[in-house]
Q: What sequence folds into this?
């Protein structure tokens, strides 16, 4: 299997057996983490409908679409790492997923967030997220950006 068939969410599983069924509405994400991963892939692939439809209805705003279009134009996502999860299992109705998503455009950076999810009528929705400080490695460890360089030699 070529690496291009792998799901962009970093699961190391084929896209067709990971997030694709959710993005094409062939299946419903069963856990908060599955929804979070599939929403990352929607950002990665520019699937605006999916991002709007998986947002908790009372949190949707009239300018979501225009803001998503802007953000998708300027941001290139490189990788996702799920740091931890709390609740969010099939039998729960709320859950939290902490993750780091790395982008290379408009510049290298990481989004470190703890997202809140709620399940209603069998569907998980993204409610909102708490921004957390970047996770920085020690000087001699590999940089978080995936360059393969030591942290102290990366980003000037
Ligand atoms: Zn996936
Ligand atoms: Zn780096």
A:
């Amino acid at each position: 299997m070529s690496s291009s068939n792998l799901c962009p969410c970093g699961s190391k599983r084929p896209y067709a057996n990971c997030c694709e069924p959710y993005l094409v509405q062939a299946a419903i994400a069963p856990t908060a983490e599955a929804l979070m991963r599939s929403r990352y892939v929607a950002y990665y692939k520019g699937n605006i409908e999916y991002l709007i439809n998986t947002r908790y209805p009372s949190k949707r705003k009239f300018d979501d679409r225009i803001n998503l279009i802007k953000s998708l134009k300027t941001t290139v996502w490189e990788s996702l790492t799920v740091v931890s999860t709390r609740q969010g299992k099939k039998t729960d109705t709320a859950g939290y997923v902490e993750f780091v998503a790395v982008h290379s455009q408009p510049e290298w950076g990481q989004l470190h967030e703890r997202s809140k999810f709620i399940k209603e009528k069998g569907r998980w929705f993204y409610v909102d997220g708490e921004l957390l400080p970047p996770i920085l490695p020690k000087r001699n460890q590999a940089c978080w950006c995936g360059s393969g360089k030591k942290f102290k030699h990366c980003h000037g």
Q: What stands out?
A: The beta strands are 76-87, 94-105, 109-120, 123-131. The chain has a mean pLDDT of 95. The helical segments are 20-23, 32-45, 48-53, 64-74.
